[in-house]
Amino acid sequence: MAEANMKLYLDISMKITEIFNSYLPLEAIHIYSIDEAWLKLNGSRLKYGDPLMLAEKIRKEIWSKYGLPCSMGIGPNMFMAKVAMDNEGKEIGLCHWDYSDIPEKLWPLKLSDCWGIGSKTEKKLNKIGVYRVGELAHLPLEYLEKNFGILGNQLYYHAWGIDYSEVEGHFDDQKKAVGRGITLYRDYNILEEIKTVVFNLAEEISKRVRQNNLKGKTVSLSLRYSKCEDKKGFSRQLTLEKRTVMTDDIYQAAVIILNKHYQGEKVRKISLYLTKFTENDYQQLNLFENNLKKVKINQLRDQLACKMGKDVLYYARNLEKGNIKARIENTIGGHHK
């Protein structure tokens, strides 16, 4: 068995995006996930030939530089390209679907093979006798909108290969939330152990917020319960009186949420987020408390950790039973760095 190397995965993903950018402007590249993207090929014909030629050129470059095979689907819109790639491109490497291919290629697909239709929606459609995309296409639009709301409108048009979505282009990374979630190795149902994990997460978030020169105001806590529990969990948020970068502020807000909503269930995943940011140079002073001293202490801890290692100075709470400090610091996306 070979353990995943998430850092390498991220690095190669960025290098492949650079290959895309060598052929197309950032405005024509929509990153969908760490290993998937849409490329808008309109306007590339004069320089690189038709879309199939350019797609094949990119595939060959990815293979020659990194030894990685990839699959591609070309279509008249984002939906058609995605479904083509999922259902044919993954088998033959590169395919091209057009509107004329809808009856032969799109309509015979099972609902589960059609991007945008989740398991819950599939079950609802199965109950009314719809199992294939073609059957979905021939339901009245009014019926789908009445029974599925705005999703019904999308289902109808997608079933006919119509998608008005636009490639959004380069993502401007203006952080709207800083957070971290962790799936626990075992079920936690001792409150103090859960609080220790929340503290570990609060410490990681406050460090990342300081690195980005931000202050946040709203703390969100989510708990996902074990499969043996009847309830799935909860997600709640609390807005502070003033914005903060402090571990203790984030932790105390999360504890208030925890004490109010947690009732002793077995917990398997905990997520914590800080949102509603402003730049860190904004200071709201308190006549009765000197927060500047606390901020300077945290900045000093960050500097020491950067210079001498993560364990040079840490809170005693990180020694409590149930702590996950080491896992947080040494994993990306649940895998070792």
Automatic annotation (TrEMBL):
<keyword id="KW-0239">DNA-directed DNA polymerase</keyword>
<dbReference type="InterPro" id="IPR043502">
    <property type="entry name" value="DNA/RNA_pol_sf"/>
</dbReference>
<dbReference type="GO" id="GO:0005829">
    <property type="term" value="C:cytosol"/>
</dbReference>
<keyword id="KW-0548">Nucleotidyltransferase</keyword>
<dbReference type="Pfam" id="PF00817">
    <property type="entry name" value="IMS"/>
</dbReference>
<dbReference type="InterPro" id="IPR050116">
    <property type="entry name" value="DNA_polymerase-Y"/>
</dbReference>
<feature type="domain" description="UmuC">
    <location>
        <begin position="1"/>
        <end position="118"/>
    </location>
</feature>
<dbReference type="InterPro" id="IPR036775">
    <property type="entry name" value="DNA_pol_Y-fam_lit_finger_sf"/>
</dbReference>
<dbReference type="GO" id="GO:0006281">
    <property type="term" value="P:DNA repair"/>
</dbReference>
<dbReference type="InterPro" id="IPR024728">
    <property type="entry name" value="PolY_HhH_motif"/>
</dbReference>
<dbReference type="Pfam" id="PF11798">
    <property type="entry name" value="IMS_HHH"/>
</dbReference>
<comment type="similarity">
    <text>Belongs to the DNA polymerase type-Y family.</text>
</comment>
<protein>
    <submittedName>
        <fullName>DNA polymerase V</fullName>
    </submittedName>
</protein>
<keyword id="KW-0515">Mutator protein</keyword>
<dbReference type="GO" id="GO:0042276">
    <property type="term" value="P:error-prone translesion synthesis"/>
</dbReference>
<dbReference type="InterPro" id="IPR017961">
    <property type="entry name" value="DNA_pol_Y-fam_little_finger"/>
</dbReference>
<dbReference type="InterPro" id="IPR001126">
    <property type="entry name" value="UmuC"/>
</dbReference>
<dbReference type="GO" id="GO:0003887">
    <property type="term" value="F:DNA-directed DNA polymerase activity"/>
</dbReference>
<keyword id="KW-0227">DNA damage</keyword>
<keyword id="KW-0808">Transferase</keyword>
<dbReference type="GO" id="GO:0009432">
    <property type="term" value="P:SOS response"/>
</dbReference>
<dbReference type="GO" id="GO:0003684">
    <property type="term" value="F:damaged DNA binding"/>
</dbReference>
<dbReference type="Pfam" id="PF11799">
    <property type="entry name" value="IMS_C"/>
</dbReference>
<dbReference type="InterPro" id="IPR043128">
    <property type="entry name" value="Rev_trsase/Diguanyl_cyclase"/>
</dbReference>
